[in-house]
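Lecture notes, structural biology module. Today: joint structure prediction for complexes of two components.
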Amino acid sequence: MHSRVSPPGGPRAEVARLYAQHAARVHRWVLRFETDADAEEVVHEIFVKVIERLDGFRAEASPTTWLYRMTTNHCLNRLRDHGRRAQLWREHADALWTTPVPEADQETVAFLGQFWRGLDDELVEAGIYYFVDGMTHAEIARIVDCSERTVGNRIERLRKAAAAATRGEP
Amino acid sequence: MTHELRDLLARNGHLTMLSLDRYDTGELDASARRFVESHVETCDGCRARLRVVATHVPLVAPPRVVGRSTGSATIAYLAASAGVALAASAVLGLGSAMWPSPQAAREHAVEATHSASSYTSVAQEYSEAPELDVELAMRGDTLVVTPQGDGWLAVVAVRDEAQGDTDGDGESTVVAVLQPARATTEAVSIAIGRRISTQRVIALACPGPFTVELGEPLAAEPGCVAHERP
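The predicted structure, tokenised, for the full assembly:
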């Protein structure tokens, strides 16, 4: 793996370079959650967070993964704050599935869509990676920095929550 | 297949979007890069998605930047450095110290896909770009590429399409992206596998962002330098 470059010019120049290198990528990721009209502002919000956590970014073996996770969580938090998680699934479920995982199960999307709003953040994040991105437990474990078993437990809790909801249980 | 390689794939057997992005940023090690390239060669869907992922770089599209951030003062503060570091004259030409719009970047990237060149550089828009050069040296099976100066670097393997071309002006097609374009001032080491060892390997350095695309011809751009593996 290549070492990450720390370009000259100090932190400000480094952020400028990170923006140049990743902003369009982050914008593409953001579009999975936000409308085109809001995406640009969300990208800027995310890079403000990058500025605040620049040391963490430098320490990452995979800055792209770090940024991907930050983007996902930022978008999910935004949706939660706006009470729009359920709306997200109604409006974008097809795109969420078909873009990264073309053969994904549409029934699962609809299933999740009904119950998404009330779930814990960690379950929602795991659900995005597992059901939307189609990642393996091991890859999710690498991203969220936990064990595969923990990932498995979260997916299982997600399934149970959904199953309980279909039976009308709180 | 190792766990690390298997986890580059989604459960449906295709590369995850994150894997493609990590490939594009040059974060994957040699074996993972080969794995991705091998998969992409035989998978139309992932090849198309990789094109989408790789078509993102020309963030600094100064004359075309029309969108503006509605963000905070922090952004405006940092934007000044972004402008200076990346395209000062162009950004400031808008009369505002704003970050370039990612939307504008996307639009510019779409335009780039219609370019005749496999790598579309905005280098020519840097009025006072520093002189660039790049050195290539083989150390065993590893190619060490050392940029001279501050700019963007990419390393590709190409196949000559025109027989008998010896002056470098003929058309060469990119058959592998060994190092996606990125800003760097440090040397990059690239393991040259058996499959690549018979190909021409070229390092490109430009003062600003550019892209290289699999399957597209490699063409010269003003302000950029290109050197072949010894």
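Point to remember: Chain A touches chain B through 51 residues (CB under 8 Å).
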